[in-house]
Structures are given as C-alpha cells and as structure tokens.
Amino acid sequence: QVQLVESGGGLVLPGGSLRLSCAASGSISFSYPMGWYRQAPGKQRELVATIARGSSPNYADSAKGRFTISRDYAKNTVHLQMNSLKPEDTAVYYCNYLHANRNYWGQGTQVTVSS
Hints:
This protein is an all-beta fold.
C-alpha cells in the first residue's frame, strides 16, 4: 500500500516562493515517476512536474523556468520549489505516484497566491 503525504502549502504574495514536499511510504520504485499535479476551482487536474530515476524531469509549460522538482530516493520524498508565483498558480497541489498504470494520490495541499 502506497501513501503520500503533502506539506508546505500556504498563502504567498505574487512573486513569492513556496516549497512543497511529499513523503511517500510503502512500495515505491525509483524507476516509476513521482510528481505534482494541481487543480484550480472549476478546472481539471493538470500536470505540474514529474521525475523518475534515469529520466529528465518533465514540466508543464506553465512551470518551466519557475518551478524545480527534486526527489530524494533515500528518503522517498519529492519536492517542488516554486518561485515567481502568480495568482494563476492558485490551486490544490497533489502529490502523485504512477506505478503499473495505477495512480496514487495524496490528500492535496492548498497554494494561494494573492495580494
């Protein structure tokens, strides 16, 4: 059984930064991707960034140049450093692990970018 627990969300001013963390427990394979998705009110859940051992990180166009994903394989954690945040980044951010065509999700953490 895989469990994912996010932390690090909050309220930030436009142009500010936040760092999200996700701690995974259970059977996690380094070769399968972990990452972040987000869902804004009234919108579908969308990819933000994913990372797997042996592959380059994958970013949504909206995240390129501003967000950095990293993964600590020893600790089974994945982080998302978000800089230059914009109001349109406001959403619930979900940690994700994809293994054998099955998606595992965390409970989500709210990120609000507002003045």
